[in-house]
Amino acid sequence: MFNVAAMHLNFRLAAEALHLTQGAVAQQVRQLESDLGVKLFHRQARGLALTERGEQYHQAINHALSIIETATQRVTTPDNRVTVSTTPSMAAKWLVPRLTRFERQHPDIEMYIVASEKVINLQTDGVDIAVRFGRAPFDQSLDAEHLVSITLLAVCSKAYATTHYQLDTEADSDEFTVDDPKSFVIQKLIQDSHGHWDEWFREMNLQPARRMLRFNQTSLAIDAAINGQGVTLVPSILVQDHLEQGHLVSLWQHMVDNGFGYYLVSQKSQTPPEPAVEAVRQWLREEFACSKTSRL
């Protein structure tokens, strides 16, 4: 009540704003002055004027009320920030190129992306959703939804393929013929930390003829292939855009049947997820479904 009277500097106007009588407002202010032992207003013929102590008190009260209003808005306004954790390569090669579509569909949701290879704790690290490469079973405290299985592609730049492989003249597009897996033995090979080439050579009962160029991140292996430094063997979903844009060509497809894939992971809860979190989950499902369809 004091704050309203201080803003209007008039008991009548303050009473109208508070839907009270002028006498009730004046009485409450007199009671406050009595309780504080401080005169807050100069009573004048045409209104009020704050005393020096009253002006100081009014500024402090205004500041306190502003803090309360801000805190109330934060508590009552839905939290539209969703934290998504994924690997650096998945973030760089698949998620980031699709964020424009997400922003168009959900302009009111802020997606905060945490790109890291480290094992996270969804409960303590403040992560709402994780997109992770792995296979079942997962920890019982987690909900893990399978998004896509893994198909490996041996890819390289068109310039590298033109130099080392034969163009398939019967194909409608720029495709290269690789009929014999032994042809990879003598190539410059690029490998990430997942060791897909090592596993492939074991399955084919072959040995590479030269040392491989190795990276700890799949995205770096892909970039090296784009720059003509050799052939890398990586999940098709991570090079899908580069293939469509002509940055890379596919030489070999290798189906993987070991249960590994990309999963949508979240903490189990007795309560439904926040609407913003569920919107991001559904968008990820749809985008992965589109990615699977485009690979068929």
UniProtKB/TrEMBL annotation:
Gene Ontology BP, a term: DNA-templated transcription
Q: Where is the HTH lysR-type domain?
A: 1-51
- Plastid as UniProt keyword: no
> Pfam families under this entry?
HTH_1 (PF00126), LysR_substrate (PF03466)
Keyword annotations from UniProtKB, A to Z: DNA-binding, Transcription, Transcription regulation
This protein's source sits in the domain of life called Bacteria
InterPro entries from the UniProt entry: LysR-type_TF_proteobact-type, LysR_HTH_N, LysR_subst-bd, WH-like_DNA-bd_sf, WH_DNA-bd_sf
Q: Where is the signal peptide?
A: none
Tell me the PANTHER family matching this sequence.
HTH-TYPE TRANSCRIPTIONAL REGULATOR (PTHR30537), HTH-TYPE TRANSCRIPTIONAL REGULATOR TRPI (PTHR30537:SF74)
Regarding protein family, the annotation reads: Belongs to the LysR transcriptional regulatory family.
Q: What is this protein called?
A: HTH lysR-type domain-containing protein
Q: What is the lineage of its organism?
A: Bacteria, Pseudomonadati, Pseudomonadota, Gammaproteobacteria, Thiotrichales
